[in-house]
Amino acid sequence: MESAPRFISLAEMKRLGVRLEATALHNAARAAWSDIRSGRAHGLKSVLSFQERDLWSQPEFAAYQNDLQGERLGWKLSALSSVGARYAAVKVVGANAINRRLGKPRSTSTILLLDGFTLRPLCVMDGTEISAARTATYASLALELFFPKIQGLSVFIFGAGPIADQIIKILGHFGAGIVSKIYVRSRSGTSARELVARQDQLPGIQLEAVADNGNLRNCRFVITASNANAPIFDIAEINPIATVLHLGGDETPAGYIRDTLRSGLVLCDDVSMVSRRNSQSLALYFSRMGSTLEQLGPLLGVSSLKDFCDAGDITESQILVTCVGLPMLDLYVAAHVYETWFSPDVNAEASLQPSGTA
Questions:
Q1: Above 50 in pLDDT, residue 354?
Q2: In the predicted model, what is the mean pLDDT of residues 339-348?
Q3: Alpha helices by DSSP H, 175-311
Q4: Which one, of 275, 222, 277, 223, lies nearest residue 248 by Cα?
Q5: C-alpha distances out from residue 201 to 133, 171, 277, 301, 335, Å
Q6: Can you tell me the distance from the alpha carbon of 123 to that of 111, in angstroms, rounded to the nearest whole number?
Q7: Cβ–Cβ contacts within 10 Å for residue 117, how many?
């Protein structure tokens, strides 16, 4: 009888020394983008959202309702399916901001990795840290694409959760000689200070928690990775030639989107997925006007990252990049983890190693 696929918990990953290193993450993401562009990697994302009133009607949760002012509840169940050159995967994500009030992560991911040809399951792994790490690769991609020749770059990050944590690590690795300062701002301020305090030292990069947007105008690279339910900056506060990497929800002002559509560059990791998800500022900008990003966006110059490879002539322009999180990135990072630590080939090789002596 065929055994069930192994489940690898986050605790087991830590026990076995699984590391999500910046170079490996970036290389896995680059391989994913290469296969996306060549048509060898595909993916779909579906989301079920729930009514907030159903949560607040439960006595055990009602007391937390006032604690979430300014924050999206984000109560949803997502399924991300993808297939690549060698593997396939399905990631299931359960998310609810109330979880943080219960001492748990806002979202929890589980990844089922399959053989890409037989579609037989290979393993099931906790994908919570993998999800945050793959999202952070958008920051290294943007750094590589839009700031290849810049030195002394200042970066402003909105948010202090797991994604911001991974972004700082990946910028600290790839930003040497490019990034000089990273500002971090969170809703309460406390989480930003805690995030900065627990970071390892970043050679040549100063990391600072801030309580307002006073330094925002000095930053050419702005990353929104918060769970805010309303815009988190005003147009007058931001650098006129900033690149904004939007990884959150409804955080970017409509006026900024309008101005960028008129005189800058607007990109998505996938126009169709961002449009159909309709939870981020760019998609909401169109849906609030009674249309969709998928219908009008391309007519106004919005394109997908997979079709954009050269930023040579637009480095002095206002840029907005909205990312919904491609399933293929989860797949390739999960495949890296599997091949490095859990595949039968790795286990067989380990069993052939001579035993140590006491």
A1: no
A2: 78
A3: 190-198, 254-263, 271-277, 281-287, 293-296
A4: 223
A5: 19, 12, 37, 40, 29
A6: 8
A7: 10
139 in the same domain as 288: yes
Per DSSP, what are the bridge partners of residue 158?
Answer: 185, 224
CA-nearest of 233, 277, 276 to 95 is: 277
Task: Tell whether 320 and 332 lie within a shared domain.
Answer: no
What's the number of domains the chain is made of?
2
Helices (H) and strands (E) in the chain, counts: 14, 14
pTM: 0.91
Same domain flag for 127 and 220: no
For 206, the 3-state DSSP assignment is strand
My answer on whether 298 and 346 are in the same domain is: no
- The sign of the dihedral angle between the CA atoms of 300, 273, 234, 287 is positive
Does residue 160 share a domain with residue 40?
no
Whose tokens are 């990135």? That residue is: 329
Domain extent, residue 26, equals 6-131+328-352
Percent over 90 (pLDDT), the chain: 73
Clarify whether residues 286 and 220 are in a common domain: yes
Give the domain CATH number at 216. 3.40.50.720
pLDDT for 247-302, tens place per residue?
988 999 999 999 999 999 999 999 999 999 999 999 999 999 999 999 999 999 99
Question: What does residue 138 show for φ and ψ, rounded to 5 degrees?
Answer: -60, -35
Q: Does any domain span residue 220?
A: yes
The terminus-to-terminus CA distance of the chain in angstroms comes to: 39
CATH number, position 26: 3.30.1780.10
User: Nearest CA to 75 among 100, 112, 40?
Assistant: 100
Strand ranges for 163-233 from DSSP E: 179-185, 206-209, 221-224
**Cα–Cα distance list, 200 to 179, 192, 207, 288 (Å):** 16, 15, 10, 43
Taking alpha carbons only, the member of 150, 167, 149 closest to residue 245 is: 167
